Amino acid sequence: MKRFSTTMLFLALALPMAAQNAAPAAPASTSPGSRPVAAINGEVITADKLNALWATVSPARREQYEKNGGKSAFLDNYLRKRLLVQEALKSGFDKRADVQADIEAAKESVLFDRYVRDVVSPQIVTDAEVLKFYEENKKDYETPEQLRIRHIVILPNGAGPRPKSKEQAIELIKRVAMELNVATLHNANDEMGLRATSRAFEAAAKQYSEDGAAADGGDLGYVGKGQLDPTFETTAWSLPIGKISGVVETPFGYHLILVEDKRAAGVQPFDVAGPKIREGIIAARSAEIVEAVTKLTNELRNASKISVYPENIR
After folding, report:
1. Which of 29, 116, 256, 288 could form a Cys-Cys staple with 35, CB 3.0–4.6 A?
2. Residue partners of 270: CB distance under 8 A and separation at least 6
3. Inter-residue contact 147 to 259 (CB < 8 Å)
4. pTM as predicted
5. Over 80: is that where the pLDDT of 18 sits?
């Protein structure tokens, strides 16, 4: 079960951030973007902040995240990174001269790379070329039938953030199943009832589930066949939309599964495939882009006033 296997390894190394401390109540917010997705030592990470960070992830890395917990896994990794950054700031490490030099060099590097990517490269790899490639190779961007899945997993045999025996794990997952059955008993099989079931399941996943997707309400995103554990997958594909499964045992633990949506086979839209296509064409035509950058810097140099003092270079 590829999506779970990475998560389980991660849990074996360190507990998820959300499990280490009880989260304080989120402050009221007037807009979805300003709502907190996490708080770390008093520093609030808003949905807008998370989305801005997520937007900087390369298409290739984002694809890997999507297979292993999605944005929630990205947030967990960011929080770990932020802990060290906070520690560095607290100790004054950022004031060191060599660190300041590296920070300045990193700023220049980012500005240079982004300018080449966003201003220079599009003059060579145009939007029209990217679209043409997409249209001529649409079969490469076909997507299989997929399910939008949430799950709750309880880990047995002392694993996970709340170690417990196999018997205790079974008892807990059965109790969660009973609570969900009670909470969703009167939900109709219409859109409103499905949303209510999803909300109840999401809340239960945040409270009880023990993998990296728990913070996102157990959301595994859209998943095609062959990506998950066979037993888990068989159950998921047999479920009607909006119906919660019984307890499902896999090598990763005891699960409850909810299928929220089914997406028919189709073609990945251009706004999703386009950035990856552009990245590939840029890599293939890197010599042309280097030539364009060299030409531009020569032009800028000829139009600028530059003085070099070799006698002061040591």
Report:
1. 29
2. 131, 134
3. yes
4. 0.57
5. no
